[in-house]
């Protein structure tokens, strides 16, 4: 579900500093979020594991509330009222079907105090479901309520910037390396967006905790692996492994207590039953949860719904531990070398611009498959930029041992044990080499395998074979057909030629105005492809770069004229 989403910058408030903050703010901030992206973790000497990052963010989320601001008021008055219930640690505002505020208190007691001062709505013509959540509404009795729906006012979408705007931005950079960095900053998740994702998980946990008090709900996939793009879905995992009593030791003699529990023949049936009940509760009791679907017969059963206050499309799964390990692995690779994330974001953006990937199900290459292809390419550099999964497994200690349904998901968690080889290739070199690598890759006979870090013979007949890093008998690209693979190869060949022809920034000549910005470098790769003759990889027709640039400039000019007229 697409929704409007505008965020102001994140505000941090220390103890005793609220008064100073209030002196500086007078009205709601409606600024779009900037491109100065804060990483998922603070920059420190060394690395922080994904588990540590998640634990910290979950603790922050449990001290936070989400407030719908239904009435006109200013920021100063809002904060002064909320501060009556406890010290505010951080806060920010955003728009999604109305104005919302995320407020993080210094402790959980402040949330409890806020609850004590919160009233149940008085509605005469409807009946209320008496479920109290940390999704609240702020009303101003001295002002008229605002409809909590999108108005005619222009709002920033909860997606990355439009492709034409991105091309303009990249065309202003001085080098291809700067273009790739700028693209990453424009597309990756912001600090505020990450916090909101963990808060939505925490709100959902409040519902599930009625049945499973010790459960946790964690985001996984793009939301936390470091490769998430603004607007991506929120994938969540209901974790019941941490409940107490599972590791209790049975005495050799004497009395012993154990819980009485329902039983089922298969763990899958248990998972389906749990998600069925949680899905029903989300549908009936979850404020802001819309369009709930229980997709229980899928290979991985899930509950899908739209969380309207945040604008996220959500998928809740359980017993999906392999996906959690895949998330941890991608996070680790992204932390080892900054070039990994930069290259993945650029290749993903390029692929979406050419229809190689899609947000809908089909025969397209998935973002996960594309990410694995980038990782494999980086393992094949000389010297390698990132290690193989087998090498990471060999470095693992006893505490890293992980067997999930007979799948070896073991790899090292201590970053200090990983010694990287010295590879000084630039982002520009890597992007050019990526296109050349896959433009000539023997997909017909070879398989991509990041566990071994080298090509292997295909174990099955499929146009594209990418081995699942942990469930090694599975092909993560099994859905891709020959036509889509041919298109990928053809566009790689075209892009390799294009970036070599347009690798130098044009002279500015002191000109001003958007219409005079000439796309070059990465920006030319985002123009519509002119590949023809897909059925035969040897038969390709390239439109000249100048013609393509001219076509784009006309498009940008028309867009600017429309904006000026509006």
Structure described in brief:
This protein is 36% helix and 12% strand. The chain has 566 residues and is α+β, with helices and mostly antiparallel strands.
Distance between the termini: 27 Å
Which structural category do the helix and sheet elements fall into?
Answer: alpha+beta
Largest sheet features? 6 strands, mixed
Low-confidence stretches: 15-45, 145-157, 532-546
Shape: globular
Percentage beta strand = 5-15%
Mean pLDDT equals 84
Topology, number of strands: 15
Global Rg: 26 Å
**Helix count from the secondary structure assignment:** 16
Helix content: 25-40%
Write the layout of secondary structure elements.
Elements: E1 6-7, E2 11-12, H1 18-24, H2 50-62, E3 64-69, H3 75-82, E4 88-95, E5 99-105, H4 108-116, E6 135-138, H5 163-171, H6 176-187, H7 191-208, E7 216-220, E8 234-239, H8 267-285, E9 289-295, E10 302-307, E11 312-318, H9 321-336, H10 338-353, H11 367-379, H12 389-394, E12 403-404, E13 407-408, H13 427-439, E14 446-447, E15 456-457, H14 482-501, H15 522-525, H16 545-565
Parallel strand pairs: 3-6, 8-11
Antiparallel strand pairs: 1-4, 2-4, 3-5, 4-5, 7-8, 9-10, 10-11, 12-13, 14-15
Helix pairs in contact: 2-7, 5-6, 6-10, 9-10, 10-11, 13-14
Domain Poly(A) RNA polymerase mitochondrial-like central palm: 176-334
Domain PAP-associated: 427-472
Protein name: Poly(A) RNA polymerase mitochondrial
Description:
There is one protein chain. The chain has 566 residues and is of the alpha+beta class. The chain is built from 16 helices and 15 strands. Strands 1, 2, 3, 4, 5 and 6 form a six-stranded mixed sheet that branches. Strands 7-8-11-10-9 form a five-stranded mixed sheet, with helices on both faces. A two-stranded antiparallel sheet has the order 12-13. Strand 9 and strand 10 form a beta hairpin. Helix 5 runs antiparallel to helix 6, helix 6 packs across helix 10 and helix 9 packs across helix 10. The chain is globular, with a radius of gyration of 26 Å.
């Amino acid at each position: 579900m697409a929704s409007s989403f505008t965020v102001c910058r994140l505000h941090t408030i220390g103890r005793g500093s609220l008064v100073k903050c209030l002196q500086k703010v007078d009205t709601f901030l409606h600024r779009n979020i900037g491109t100065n992206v804060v990483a998922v973790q603070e920059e420190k000497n060394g690395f922080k594991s994904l588990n540590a990052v998640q634990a910290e963010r979950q603790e922050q989320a449990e001290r936070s509330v989400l407030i719908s601001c239904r009435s006109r008021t200013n920021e100063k008055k809002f904060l002064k009222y909320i501060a009556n219930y406890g010290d505010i640690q951080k806060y920010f505002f955003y728009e999604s079907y109305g104005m919302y505020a995320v407020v993080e208190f210094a402790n959980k007691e402040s949330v409890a105090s806020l609850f004590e001062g919160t009233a149940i709505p008085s509605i005469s013509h409807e009946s209320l479901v008496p479920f109290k959540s940390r999704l609240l509404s702020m009303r101003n009795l001295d002002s008229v309520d605002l409809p909590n729906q999108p108005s005619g006012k222009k709002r920033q979408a909860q997606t990355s910037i439009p492709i034409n705007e991105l091309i303009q931005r990249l065309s202003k950079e001085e080098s291809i390396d700067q273009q790739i960095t700028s693209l990453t900053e424009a597309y990756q998740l912001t600090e505020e967006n990450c916090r909101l994702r963990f808060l939505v998980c925490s709100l959902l946990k409040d519902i599930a905790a009625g049945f499973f008090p010790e459960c946790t709900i964690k985001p996984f996939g793009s939301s936390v692996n470091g490769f998430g793009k603004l607007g991506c879905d929120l994938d969540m995992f209901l974790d019941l492994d941490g409940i107490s009593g599972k590791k209790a030791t049975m005495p050799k003699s004497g009395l012993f207590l154990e819980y009485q529990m329902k039983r089922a023949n298969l763990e899958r049936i248990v998972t389906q039953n749990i998600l069925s009940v949680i899905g029903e509760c989300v549908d009936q009791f979850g404020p802001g949860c819309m369009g709930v679907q229980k997709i229980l017969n899928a290979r991985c059963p899930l509950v899908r719904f739209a969380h309207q206050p945040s604008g996220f499309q959500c998928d809740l799964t359980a017993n999906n531990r392999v996906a959690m390990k895949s998330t941890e692995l991608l996070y680790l690779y992204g932390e080892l070398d900054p070039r990994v994330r930069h290259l993945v974001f650029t290749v993903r953006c390029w692929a979406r611009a050419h229809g190689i990937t899609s947000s809908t199900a089909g025969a397209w290459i998935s973002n996960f498959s594309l990410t694995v292809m980038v990782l494999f390419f980086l393992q094949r550099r000389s010297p390698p930029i990132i290690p193989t999964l087998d090498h990471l497994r060999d470095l693992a200690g006893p505490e890293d041992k992980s067997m999930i349904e007979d799948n070896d998901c073991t790899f090292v968690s201590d970053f200090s044990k990983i010694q990287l080889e010295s590879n000084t290739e630039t982002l520009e070199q890597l992007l050019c080499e990526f296109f050349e690598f896959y433009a000539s890759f023997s997909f017909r006979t070879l398989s991509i395998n990041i566990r071994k870090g080298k090509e292997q013979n295909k174990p099955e007949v499929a146009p594209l074979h990418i081995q699942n890093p942990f469930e090694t008998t599975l092909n993560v690209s099994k859905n891709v057909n020959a036509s889509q693979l041919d298109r990928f190869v053809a566009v790689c060949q075209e892009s390799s030629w294009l970036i070599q022809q347009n690798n130098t920034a044009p002279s500015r000549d002191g000109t001003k105005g958007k219409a005079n910005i000439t796309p070059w470098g990465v920006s030319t790769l985002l123009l519509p492809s002119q590949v023809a003759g897909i059925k035969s990889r040897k038969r390709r027709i390239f439109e000249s770069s100048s013609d393509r640039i001219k076509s784009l400039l006309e498009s940008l000019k028309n867009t600017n004229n429309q904006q000026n007229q509006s």
